Amino acid sequence: MFQFTALPPLSLYIHFPWCVRKCPYCDFNSHAVRGELPEEQYIDALLTDLEQDLPRVWGRPVRSIFLGGGTPSLFSPEAIERLLDGVRARVVLLPESEVTLEANPGTVETERFRGYRAAGVNRLSIGVQSFQPEQLKKLGRIHGRDEALAAAQAARAAGFDNFNLDLMFGLPQQTPDEALADLRTALALHPAHLSLYQLTLEPNTLFHAHPPELPDDDVLAAMQDALQTELAGAGFAQYEVSAYARGGRRCRHNLNYWQFGDYLGIGAGAHAKITHATGITRLWKVKQPRDFLAKVGTPGILGGEQHLRNEDVAFEFMLNALRLTEGFPATLFTERTGLPLASLEPALAQAGARGLVEHSAGIICATTLGRRFLNDLIGLFLPESTAPKVDGRHQH
Ligand SMILES: C[S@@+](CC[C@H](N)C(=O)[O-])C[C@H]1O[C@@H](n2cnc3c(N)ncnc32)[C@H](O)[C@@H]1O
Ligand code: SF4
């Protein structure tokens, strides 16, 4: 039986499903834009979608917004302003809320960034991936090294000191030295935050069908060690599997996912998680942009809805919270799941006995070993009837 003492913090995710071109490694809900971008129509649809969702969160303030994609920076500053004005007119956005927009270096310059800032965006996340021209080509990116450098400089010139750079490592035939060179170039741009993702071959991508030659496990381990040492030396503290921040600039929106907070998700294919008196519901919107535009404002907008069972809730909490480098207070488990800590036993005891988890001074945390074998660790918390499918990645 669920028992909640308080509802968790609430965030808002807004999805933009178009890109200039589809990258061959990417399994996000993103589609190459054909013809003209339906900018006006999509912003109207997002606001209608939000309005339809409001009864699910009556009276609850929003504390972060993430405009993710796809490529939100394809949308003009005027469109983003109309969207954020519309959001603020419909929900209470707490003062000091973090508002992030994802940008592709091939689609931006200082004026555009200035416009986003004036619209209320206060954090940028720039998808750089690599600074090596050869790698950018292999990754099918629409920008080169110079545009990647220029994007970070433009962000700063437009007044954004709080920006993230996305880098990928473990790229085709990449050596540890090459990965380190990418990281050093990124650090020289003084981002507040870095996300370092190991390239994975995702089903339904071109790379999955025609896999490039990737570094082997030994090279990857050496690469990861080199990157972590460099990051620590530069004052970046790791706080999640792929996330590093300087001076307390952790991403509040993503932290809310990992701490099993609530979020609305509007836009094509966006996911939401909502806590209510009787449990936790996940829901998602129809995925194809065309369907989304046609069905918004009707019940058909829902791609699906799932009320979580107790055992799913416990697993999903662990899937997220064990990714956090500092772990989580044991009390957070009960607060966010409405379940007693005892429902984590015997998996917690088993993980402890194998040296994968530590539980001391009220904090539960993956050990260094547990972080290295995170999938095995998380697998211990799987409900028995569920097939082992472990993926803690989120809509960004
Ligand atoms: C939705 S994209 C955001 C930004 C923007 N669309 C761009 O690519 O410039 C989020 C990030 O996920 C990462 N990513 C996407 N596919 C990946 C994969 N197969 N393996 C590892 N990281 C991936 C990339 O670093 C990418 O920047
Ligand atoms: S990685 Fe980014 S730019 Fe490339 S297809 Fe995916 S969402 Fe679009």
Structural key phrases:
396 residues, alpha/beta, 15 helices, 17 strands, 36% helix, binds S-adenosylmethionine, binds iron/sulfur cluster
Description:
The protein is α/β, with parallel strands linked by helices. It is built from 15 helices and 17 strands. The chain has a nine-stranded mixed beta sheet, with helices on both faces. Strands 12-13-14 form a three-stranded antiparallel beta sheet, with no helix packed on it. The chain has a three-stranded antiparallel beta sheet with strand order 15-17-16. A hairpin with a 2-residue loop joins strand 12 and strand 13. The longest helix is centred in the middle third of the chain and has 17 residues, at 217-233. The model has no long low-confidence stretch (mean pLDDT 95).
DSSP summary: helix tally: 15
Roughly what fraction of the amino acids lie in strands?
A: 15-25%
Biggest sheet features: 9 strands, mixed
End-to-end separation: 31 Å
Radius of gyration: 21 Å
> Mean pLDDT, nearest integer?
95
Hetero compounds:
S-adenosylmethionine, iron/sulfur cluster
Largest sheet: spatial strand order: 9-10-8-7-6-5-4-1-11
Class from helix and strand fractions: alpha/beta
Query: What is the β-strand count?
Result: 17
Low-confidence stretches: none
Shape: globular
Proportion of helical residues: 25-40%
